[in-house]
Amino acid sequence: MSLPEAPRLHLNENLSPRLAEQLRKHGFDVTTSHEMDMLAEPDDVQLAFATAEQRAIVSFNVRDFAPLHDEYQAAGREHWGMIFSTQEPLNILFQRLLRLLNAVSAEDLKNQIRWLNEFQ
Fold first, then answer.
1. What pTM does this model have?
2. Does 31 have pLDDT greater than 70?
3. Which of 3, 88, 101, 117 is the most buried (most CB within 10 A)?
4. Residues 8, 30: contact at Cβ < 8 Å?
5. What is the SS3 assignment for 78?
6. Is residue 2 over pLDDT 90?
């Protein structure tokens, strides 16, 4: 029996591209707003990109992304997950994201909001 597919991630501009580099070294598929030249794009555009790419978005910005989750739900639209975190040192974010990626499948994360603090 094969393992469920790990979530693919998109790190918004709040997170360091170094975090993506570290996750890729462990075999995970990660893009960033920095790398995709999306730094000036509004949050709804960031989420639309992540959704089109079947990626969960990772952000500290719960204030703006949580209402977008509600809008998607109300409109019957799907997204591939939103992962929120408090601002933490890079090594803490890395360890928590590794735990999440090894514990939650892409399908389980679909249309969900998860907090990295769950994965301490």
1. 0.94
2. yes
3. 101
4. yes
5. coil
6. no
Token pair listed for 33: 């707003």
Choose among 62, 50, 57, 56: nearest CA to 87: 62
pLDDT tens sequence across 3-26: 579 999 999 999 999 999 999 999
b/e code 5-40 from CB counts within 10 Å (16+ = b): ebbbbbbbbebeeebbebbeeeebbbbbbeeeebee
Euclidean distance between CA atoms 43 and 61, whole angstroms: 9
Rounded Cα–Cα distance for residues 41 and 14 (Å): 13
Side chain identity at 22, as an amino acid letter?
Q
Calculate the alpha carbon distances from 79 to 5, 45, 120 in Å: 16, 13, 25
Kindly state the tokens that stand for 30.
């990660």
Domains of the chain by residue range: 9-119
Residue the block writes with tokens 């570290």:
22
Q: Domain 9-119: which CATH class?
A: alpha beta
Nearest by Cα to 87 from 78, 79, 96: 96
- At position 38, the amino acid (one-letter code) is M
